[in-house]
Each structure stands twice: as structure tokens, then as C-alpha cells.
Automatic annotation (TrEMBL):
Name this polypeptide is given: GHMP kinase
Database matches in Gene3D superfamilies: 3.30.230.120
Domain GHMP kinase N-terminal: 80-162
A GO term, aspect molecular function: fucokinase activity
Cited Pfam families: GHMP_kinases_C, GHMP_kinases_N
UniProt keywords, alphabetically: ATP-binding, Kinase, Nucleotide-binding, Transferase
Similarity-based family: Belongs to the GHMP kinase family.
Domain GHMP kinase C-terminal: 234-314
GO terms for biological process, alphabetical: GDP-L-fucose salvage
Amino acid sequence: MVIRGRAPLRVSFGGGGTDVEPFCVEQGGAIIGSTINKYAYCSIIPRDDDQITVHSLDFDMTVKYNAKENYVCDGRLDLVTAALRAMDIKQGCEVYLQCDAPAGSGLGTSSTVMVSLLTAMARWKGITLDNYAMADLAYGVERIDLGISGGYQDQYAATFGGFNFIEFHGRNNVVVNPLRIRRDIINELQYNLLLCYTGNIHVSANIIKDQVSNYKKPDAFQAMCEVKALSYAMKDELLKGNLHNFGRLLDYGWESKKRMSSKITNPQIDMLYDEAKKAGALGGKLLGAGGGGFLLVYCPYNVKHQVAHRLEAAGGQLMDWNFELRGAQSWICDEDRWDYRDIQVQMPNKEYTFHV
């Protein structure tokens, strides 16, 4: 038996950073975004002994534990260690982790890995958690237990999936508003967007700490308020299908977000963004906390090819993607069905055997 968990990565359109305390507690935060068809996976194979072996396929790393001993974080796959402890895993197993995007990509990878882990573990133990409870558990393990700096949006986006407008007022006071967007609007939005990998790997915790330290500075605080207001405007324009306005609001949001911390952008990112604008893009933003990862660019369909060419010529790497409307999922598969066996097919005049 293999238990699998899968959670989708996300793109944030507006409001990024307002989901981080203390701003969201004192002022209220708001995020608009969607999940995409790139995922974090967790596979669990139960064992009959106390040995737990975790394989990170992305980092080519293996860590071993004993289910009867205390789980101690030692800097090696601490996300897994904390999840095992939170779910009170007392049985041996093999765990395999894999993510479709690298760490530091700005797509919420670490939180999405956590959600996939907890989703698979809950399925294994027969525990039923609704989306709010799962997202809050993932937040608690990552932000509280491990002390990793960050906001709330990634855990909720990965758990709920789809297009959401999420309002934050601190822990246990998060409201997820699913957006009912017409399918033709979603299709057109995806057609007019590009995802470009900048090649920079960033440490989001350092940028978030700098942002928090700037919270009381007037210009940074005003920028956060503007970013929040823009998320409401983006929601309205997206629901109405005014996509070019939505694209221009992305540009306003990016200009405001850069004022929240000097670490959010760098010369290479600015150069890629400027090249996209020169080729006809209406707006865009760097995903995640900043400093690197994926650049999201909105461009009218008739100049999209020109923007793509300009970005690639400047060193960007375009990724093929689409929106994903489902959130975290889990399922069980039977390993015995993977065994190779002769396949026989009886036809009216003859029996065929296929040796696989």
C-alpha cells in the first residue's frame, strides 16, 4: 500500500506581504491568487518495524528516524521532522518527497510540501480535517513549531486550491472567499500570462524579516496599505473580466511592493521586468517574498510572443503551466498492481498473450 498526498503550488496576484504579522493582525491583510498545475508530492509506504526513512528526491537526501524516539530537528529535512512530530507518527514507513519547482522559486514550495506531507499522513492515520483545520495545522507546524518566518497565504492556497480572495486577521481568523470566475475569463487570463524563472534563488525568511522591521516606517507602511487596497481592486476587475485593467494593476502592485523592502528586487529582476514592459507587457510582479524565483507577466495576446522572446533573450526561462482549480488531495494505490504479469486477451478467433 502506498499513501500519496498532493498539493498545488500557487501564484499570488496581489496583497503579498499583508498576510504577515503584525500587519495582518493590526490592519487586516488581503491576498488574491490562484493555484497552478505544479505540485508538491508526498508518498508514504508503511513498514512493519520502527524505521522511518525519508527520501527527498529533489535534494537527493535521505534521513532516517526511529518511530519510538523523539523527533529532533537538526537542520536536515526539518519540515518532515516537524510533521512527523505533529501527526504523532509511531510506525515505521518510507517517505518520498518531490516538488515540481525548486525551493526559493516564489511559488510557496515549502508550505506546499508541508501540506502534501500532512495530507498524506492524515489519510494514513484515518484523520479527517477540513480545509481550514489542515491549513491552520500546516501554518502552526511551519511558522510556530519550526519558527520559519512567513505569512499565512501559502498554506491556505495549497489546501483550498483554485482562485481565492483570502482575508487575514491573525491565526484562527482567516476567511477564504472562493472566486466564481467564468471559465472563458480564466482561459483568457492564462493565455495572457507568462511565468518566467529569473534563475535567482532567494531566502524568503530574510526578506520577510526585513519587511517586518520596516513595518513602522511611514513609506513602507503606506506601501503595504496600497498593496492591500490593490488586491481588492484586482478582485473586482478579475470578476468583471476587465483583464487589461487587471494587468495594469499588477504593475501598480509591483511598484508598491518594492517599497516594502530594499531586498525584494535586484538589478537582474528589474532588467527582466523592464524588457517585458518594453516589448508590450502591461504589468507583472515577482512571486513570493522577492529576491528571485518566478516573474509573472501580463501581456496582451498579440504581443505575448514578443515579450516571451525578449525575456528569453535576456536570460529568463519560461515555464509551461496552467491554472489548477483543485486543492490538496490524497489517495491510496496498491503496489501489487505494479508487478509485471503476462496479459492475455481472448478474441473471437484467437487468444493473445503480451509479455510485459
